[in-house]
Amino acid sequence: MSTRVVNAESIRGKVTFEDLVEPVSRAFAETSAGLADNGLIVMFPAERRELGDVYVKTGSLRGHDVYIVKVSPWFSANLERGQAQGGFVAVFDSATGHTLALLHDEHYLSDIRTAAAGAVAARMLAPPTVETVAVLGAGVQAYWQPLALYGERPFKTLSIWARSMPKAEVLKSRLREKLPDVEIWCSPDIESTVRRADVLITATQAREPLVRGEWLRRGAHVTAVGADDATKSELDATALRRAKVFVDAREIAEANGDVHRAIRTGRYSIDDVSGELGEVISGRKAGRTAVDDITVAKLVGLGAQDLVAAEVTLAKLS
């Protein structure tokens, strides 16, 4: 039995984040219904942790014909050299375990399924009307998340804060091409950037909290995607305590990112989490219920999302 091998160029030419929004929404709901097995191992093979990491995610969903194992490396050396990241998604037959396909996506499927997850979070939790958006960071998700948000909540202005102002300016130019009706500028001050935002997107590699809870305006929504392992954190415990926090999966949030950090400091508990995003999608939990609610979607990422991304990819390429 031969294994299909698909390169990144083929995937990019056929699959967009818009193709993944509804499948990712269903993956959230199925995970929260207890139908998923999501696994995560994080390795740090570079000389220092901040220079590179490798995420190995596994995903299966009851009733689906395939399961996946994803190897997703990120190394700063690739950014410096202007080359793609490595990695692949291996797709297996759920009945036999045979390898059906290797999707050499160069991180692309991870990028767009995270964008799709952000779109779902905005749909379920963001204020009905959004005017001002802020994004912290200037990397891949700082590009994708505003595009995903705009599809659900069109907005008028976007401010970008990043540690590197030249990188923020590059991001501004890229986003202007995609969002011509949005006024976009770069901000040198993180506090004022956060305080103005109806929706805040955090997409940094921060290992200590950047956002203080008292900066969040009443009624704001936060989509937090940067802190995706146990070493990273973007939101302080006050931000979590002021908000209704929704996670992709409780056990994964408890062990990774902002929730993990706040629990470790003793200022938060996993019981303080308002629910999983899949529970809001299925109607088992209420999301935003009042105008002044502050909501946080804390997304670490699920193997089930990678599974549905692989399903869509193979269907598009068939």
Indicate the CATH topology of the largest domain: Rossmann fold
Largest pleated sheet: 8 strands, parallel
- One letter per element, helices H and strands E, the order comes to EHHEEEHEEHEHEHEHEEHEHHEHEH
Fraction of residues in H or I helices? 25-40%
Structural class: alpha/beta
- Compute the number of structural domains: 2
Number of helices: 12
**CATH H-level homologous superfamily name of the largest domain:** NAD(P)-binding Rossmann-like Domain
Unreliable residue stretches: none
By CATH, the architecture of the largest domain is named 3-Layer(aba) Sandwich
Classify the oligomer. Answer: single chain
User: What is the number of strand segments?
Assistant: 14
Average pLDDT, rounded to a whole number, is: 96
- Can you identify the CATH class of the largest domain? Alpha Beta
Q: Which sequence of strands runs across the widest sheet? A: 9-8-7-10-11-14-12-13
Which geometry do the CA atoms define? globular
GO molecular function: oxidoreductase activity
Family: Belongs to the ornithine cyclodeaminase/mu-crystallin family.
Protein name: Cyclodeaminase
InterPro entries: NAD(P)-bd_dom_sf (IPR036291), ODC_Mu_crystall (IPR003462), ODC_N (IPR023401)
Which structural traits does this protein have?
318 residues; alpha/beta; 2 domains; 8-stranded parallel β-sheet; 6-stranded mixed β-sheet; 12 helices; 38% helix
